[in-house]
Amino acid sequence: MREQKAKENWQKARVVSSVLGVVFGLLITTGLAQDATNQQASVQSALSDQRVGVAAGKRVTMTLRDAMLMALENNRDIEVERLNVQMNEFDLRGSYGAYDPSLTSSFFYNRSKTPVANPLAGGENGGLLTDNLTGNATLLQRVQTQGGSFQATFNNDRATTQNLFNAINPQFTSSLSVGYTQPLLRNREIDPFRRQIKIAKKRLDISDAQFRQRAVEIIAQVQRAYWDLVFARRDREIKRESVELARTQMAHNERLVEAGALAKADIISARVELERRNDEAEAAVDAIQRAENSLKALLLLPSSSDLWDSELTPVEQPQLDSNASLPLADAVRLAQQNRPELEQFRLRGELNQIDVDFFRNQTKPQVDFVINYGAVGVAGDPRTETNFFTQSNLLLTQRVNDLSRLAGLPPLPGGGDFSLPGFLIGGNGQSLANMFKNEFRTWKVGVNINLPLRNRAAEANLGRALAEGKQIDVQRQRLTQTIEVEVRNALQAVETAKRRVEAARNSRENAELQYQSEQRKFDAGQSTNFFVLDRQNALIAARGRELKALTDYTKAVAELQRALSTTLTSNNVQVQVK
Q1: Which of 533, 542, 518 is nearest to 274 (CA)?
Q2: Domain spans of the chain?
Q3: How many other C-beta atoms lie within 10 A of the C-beta of residue 269?
Q4: What's the CATH superfamily of 2-87+197-318+326-355+462-570?
Q5: Tens of pLDDT along 116-128?
Q6: Which residues pair with 108 in a beta bridge?
Q7: C-alpha angle with apex 308: 303 to 313, nearest 5 degrees?
Q8: Which end of the chain has fewer CB atoms at under 10 Å, N or C?
C-alpha cells in the first residue's frame, strides 16, 4: 500500500512539475511571482547598473568609424606627432634663412688728437687733431647652387684734420667694392648650409611617416578597445541571462518542493548557484567600466566632461569577414610597401647619405676662386692755410720773378699756383659722383688655398657616417624580418579565430539542445536539479566562448590590418596635419 501511495505521489509531482514549467514563465513576465522566504527575497534582488562617474540616462551611441574619427581629432598622442610635423616644417623653413640677404651697417664719429714730433706730419704745436664721420654698409648674399657668395661693401667718410699738408679739408672719401667667392673643391657640391636644408627635408619626411605610424597604432588601439567594450557589454547580458535562468530554476524547485516532488536541499543548491551567478554578473559591470574608460582615454579630451560622464553604447557587433585574409606572399609584399617604419628606415638611410657626402667633401682641400672690383671717389674744400713748403715756395718764386723783372726776363710760369683739379672740389655729393664715374678703380682676381696637412676630424666624421649607414641597413633588415613574422602571426591568428568561431557556434547550438533536453527530463522527473544547473552553466559558458571567439576574430582582423598598415585605407579614414 505504501508503494502504491508513493507511486501516486510521484505521478502527481510529474504532472505538477510539467504544469509549473509552463506557468512559471508567465508568472515571471507578469511580475506575479512571490517570495517564499526572506532569504529568497535577497536572492532575487535586482542587479545594479550604477557605475562610478557615469550619469544615469546619459548615453552616447557610437559606431567604430565615429570612434576612429574622434580619436584622430582628440587623441593627445596623435596631436603630439602632428605638432612634431609642424615643428619640422618650421625647421625646414628656417634652414633656408642662410640664403637670405644680409645687410650690416655702421655709423660712427671718431675724434683723435695725437702727438707728432715730425714737422712733416703736418701738426701744430706738437699735436695733430683729426675728426672722422664714417658710415659703411655691407651686403652679403649666398648662392645656393655651387656654394658661392656675393659681397658688396660701401664706405663713406668725412675727415677733418689739422694736417697742413692735406690740400682739401674737410675731405670726403667714397668707395664701393663688389666681390664674388666660388669654392672649387671643398663646399662646392655641398656645404654646411645646403646640408642643413637637406637634413631638414628628410626629417620632415620622417616626421610625416611617424605621424602616419602613430595614427595607425592609435586606430588599432581604438578598434581593440571598441571590441573589448562590445564584448564586456554582451558578456554582462549573458551573465544576466544566466542569473534569470538560475532564478527560474529556483522558483521551479520551490514549487516542486511544495508539491512534495523534491527535497528542500534542491532549493538551497539552486540558491547557491544563483548567488554565484549574481557575483559574476556584478563583476561584469566592472569589466564594462574598465573597457569603457580605456576607450574614452583614446577618444576624449581631458576637458570633455559631458562625454566622460556619459555611457558609450557601441552600435556595431562582431561578425565574420570572408575577405579579411589573403595569401602570405601578397601580405608580406603589401606590408613591406606600406609599413611606415620601413619608410622611416629608408629616409634615415638617405639622411645618412647626406652626412656621408658632406663629410667626404670636407676631406678635400679648400680652394676658392676670388674676384673683386672697386671704385673710389674723393672730394673736398681747398685748404686756405699754407704749410712751410708752400709758403717758402711762394717766397722763392716771388724773389725769382722780382729779379727776372729787373733783368728784363719773363716771370716763371704758373706763378706758384698749386690749385686742385675742379672735379676734386666739392662736398660729399661730388665724392659720390667721382666714385660712380669709375675713373679710379681697382680689381683683383686669384685663388685662396687652405691645405691642411692632416684632416683627422673630417676623416673621423666620414668614417662614423659610413659605419652608421651600415648600422641602419642592418636594423632595416632586422625590422623587415620582424614585420614578416608579424604578418605571419596575424594571418594565422585570423584563420585560427575563424575556426574558433565556427567551433564555438556549434558548441553553443549543441549546448542549447542539451539544456533543453535536460530541462524536459527534469520536468518529467527523469533528471535532477544538479544536472539542470550543470547544463545551464555549460550553455552560458558556450555562449561566452562564442562571443569571445567572435571578438577575438574581429580583433585579429584589426591586428592584421595594422601589420599590413592598411588600417586607414581599410576603414576609409584619412589623416592630415593641420
Answers
A1: 533
A2: 2-87+197-318+326-355+462-570, 102-191+366-455
A3: 17
A4: Outer membrane efflux proteins (OEP) (1.20.1600.10)
A5: 766 666 666 667 7
A6: 134
A7: 145
A8: N
Beta partners for residue 102, in sequence order:
140
Residue ranges of alpha helices (H) inside 75-189 are 76-95
Cβ distance 319 to 281 under 8 Å?
A: no
Instruction: Specify the residue for cell string 555549460.
Output: 538
d(CA 223, CA 560): 12
**CB-based burial label for 99 (10 Å; 0-12, 13-18, 19+):** middle
pLDDT in tens, 185-207: 999 999 999 999 999 999 999 99
CA distance 183 to 154: 24
Q: In terms of Cα–Cα distance, which of 349, 64, 84, 321 is closest to 213? A: 84
The pLDDT value recorded for residue 114 is 81
Region of 273 please: left (phi>0), alpha (psi -120 to 50) or beta: alpha
- HEC letters along 232-257: HHHHHHHHHHHHHHHHHHHHHHHHHH
Max Cα-Cα span within the chain:
195
CA distance 332 to 338: 10
Compute the chain's Rg from CA coordinates. 49
**Cell representation of residue 267:** 532549493
Q: What nine digits make up the cell of 520? A: 524536459
- Sort 14 into a burial class: Cβ within 10 Å, 0-12 / 13-18 / 19+: middle
Say if CB 299 and CB 70 are below 8 A apart. yes
Pick from 295, 302, 227: nearest CA to 561: 227
Measured CA to CA, the distance from residue 246 to residue 403 in angstroms comes to 153
Strands (E), 366-519: 366-382, 441-450
d(CA 49, CA 67): 24
- pTM of the entire structure? 0.76
* β-bridge pairing 149-161 and 59-62: unpaired
Coil vs helix vs strand at 548 = helix
Distances (CA, A) of 557 to 136, 326, 494: 72, 11, 6
User: Grid coordinates standing for 262?
Assistant: 523534491
Residue 9 scores a pLDDT above 50: no
Q: Report yes or no: 43 and 250 within 8 Å, Cβ to Cβ.
A: yes
Cα–Cα distance measured from residue 55 to residue 53, given in angstroms and rounded to the nearest whole number: 6
Phi, psi at residue 163, to the nearest 5°?
-65, 115
